[in-house]
Each structure stands twice: as structure tokens, then as C-alpha cells.
Amino acid sequence: MAKYKLSAVQVKQAPKGKYGDGNGLWLIKQSKDTGSWMLRISVHGTLRHMGLGSIHDVPLSAARAAAEKWRAIAKDGTDPIQERERQRQKHGLRRHLLADVALDAFEAQKGRLKDGGKAGRWFSPLELHVLPKLGQTPISDIDQIAIRDTLKPLWKAKPATAQKAIQRLGIVLKHGAALGYDVDLQAVAKAIALLGTIKLKTKHIPSMDWREVPVFYASLCDGKVSQLALRLMILTGLRSGSLRYLMPDFIDGDILKVPGIFMKSGVDFDVPLAPAALKVIEDAKRHARGDFLFPGRRGNVISDMTLSQYMKRAGHSARPHGFRSSLRVYLAEHGCPRDVAEMCLSHNVMSKVEASYQRSSLLEIRRRWLIQWSAFVTTGVDDLNNMNPNSEITKSV
């Protein structure tokens, strides 16, 4: 048994000075009432001085226990000072809260999100359904049980929302692991196993039969911003989010060059413009404000809700996004090749290998089909002989 030199009374009463307890443990008194512990220990032949705390926080017995612990670690060839720092860092990492990591992950995602994620669609599933319960939990403590209990009420009631929430949570956990936190990367997969699989019901956005589009297009005749936006959406097949942010600078002759930041794919997209589409753009320039062709009443751009509400008030169940379906069905029923039809809607139809070889945007082929669509929309004529993409009638529309 080790023979110690100090007593608790000496620690308390000793005046300023240095006092050895044995085996490298020293009491350093700055005054009668203040002092600290220090362990002198050899690591790979180098003398190290390791502080063990003040006498007010660490009593004599605890100082001796700590000294014994760190001497054993040094005996195994590990620097006790470096090991203590590693343990402190690990403890700190374990305490990092999920809410903090989620916000950091969101910042990392913003570069690929439309408008930098300002719409909130990426973060809202976490903000509404995960962080209220788990936000103040250290990320290292997030396990499948915690995830299951948090999302269970949502899992069958709102499966699509639950899927988004758990997918975003998986991204946050991976982000935390990349930051060096102690994270269970399998927690999401295990939580899904506990929650059980759910069958998502595909809910299609209501669309208008392509045969009815010309009548609706003709009704958009007041020259208002919302009506012009709907006309151009019909003629180009663009998504609402892409179309509403269009600027005059995007027009290059008879081509609309949409920057990738405004495309769902994140890739720049060229849209060939039929003469009717060019006329709509010229009419829209009269309303342009703040660089946007389709400004809203309260600044920025016209909202998607404004366009939807217009159609609802007009008595239509279809929604603006549904015109993409109207165009796609029209192209299919008029013999347009699948790849061309999909590219008209800016859908990616090729694998990475195919895309590395087939680099054409099929712009001129798409132009002919969009001109045919434009001719039908603006005239209501659907004579397949006269409406052939290569016909002179079509080219003049």
C-alpha cells in the first residue's frame, strides 16, 4: 500500500509553498487558503506536469485517485494530458444539440436549394415535427427509439410529411457525423423498421384535359400579370417556380434561357419560344418591376397561390402545375418521341452514361413540337395534317 505524506489538515492549514504527497503528486499552495494539485509524471522519458484542480474542488482523496488513474494510463504508453483532452472533447461533442446541427446542415444544403431555401420547404419538416421534441437532445443521444416516438403520431396520419421529416433527419445525422460527433448513422433505418413501411398514395395535381386548354387560354385576355403568367406557363411547359422568377434578361432572341437556380433540377435550361410566347413576353414587359416579368403587388414576384386562386375563382379544379400534364399528354397522343416530350418538360430521362454521350438539348426538335402545341392552344385547331411540326402552317404560328 502506498505511503502518503500529506493529511487533509495539512492541505487546509499549510502556508504558501510546495508539498509532495508521494508518487509525483504535489500540492502547490499560493497562500494558506488557496492551492492546487499537480502531478509530475514521465511519458516516454519526458517529464510532464498535469494539473488536477484546485483544493476547493478536489479533496485530497480525489487528487490521489486521479493521480493513480493518470499514472496507470501513462504506464500504458499514453500521454495522460492528451488523453484527458481527448475525453473532454468527446464529452463536448456528445453534448452538441440536434437543433444546432440541424441548422448547420441546413446552411450546407442552401447552395442546392431554390432561392437558398427561403421558402422553408426543406427545413420545415424538421422545424415542425422533429425539433420541438428532439431539438434540445444531444445528437449523440438520438437513437431509433427517440425517432420512432417522435414521428409515430405522424407516420400513418401524414405519411408524405413523415417521410420528408425522417429523410431530412437522416441528412442531419450524416452532417453531424461529418463534423466529428458521435452519431448512430443507422438510427433512421432502424426507426423505419420499428415504425413499419407505409404505402404513399400518389396524389396527382389536378390538370386540364389538353382539348380544353385553348378555351381557357382564350379567356386569359385582360392582359393582367396573372393571366400573362398563366399564358406563358401553358405555352412553355415551365413550372410555376421557374416561370414566376423570369427576368427580361433571360430572353435571347427566340430562346428563353432559365438559370439553374430557378430550375428544379438545378441545371440551366433553354426553352424555345413560339411566336405566341414571344408576344406574351412583350406584353408582360409593360408590367415588369424590380427586374421581374411577373411582379407581385407587394413586391418581389407574383405568388403561386395567386395563380392557383385565379383558376379556382374561374371555376376550374385544375391547377397551374397541371398544364405540364396537359402538354405531356398532348405530345404523347400526337406521336412525339418520349425523350423529346420529357425534355420539353425539363425531365432528366438519361442515365449518367447516356448523358455523357448524348449531350444535345434537342432544342430545334423541341421547338417544332412546342410550336405545334402553341398553334393548337392559340387556335383550337387540331388537324394532324395541318399541325405537323414541319408544316408551313405550324411554322407561321
Q: What does the model show?
A:
48% of the residues lie in helices and 10% in strands. With 397 residues, the chain is an alpha+beta fold. The protein folds into three domains: 8-91, Integrase, DNA-binding domain (Double Stranded RNA Binding Domain); 98-195, DNA polymerase, domain 1, CATH 1.10.150; 210-396, Intergrase catalytic core (hpI Integrase, Chain A, Orthogonal Bundle). The strands form two sheets. Strands 1-2-3-4 form a four-stranded antiparallel beta sheet, covered by helices on one side. A hairpin with a 5-residue loop joins β2 and β3. It is elongated.
Keywords:
single chain; 397 residues; alpha+beta; Double Stranded RNA Binding Domain; DNA polymerase, domain 1; hpI Integrase, Chain A; 3 domains; four-stranded antiparallel beta sheet; three-stranded antiparallel beta sheet; 7 strands; 10% strand; elongated; disordered C terminus
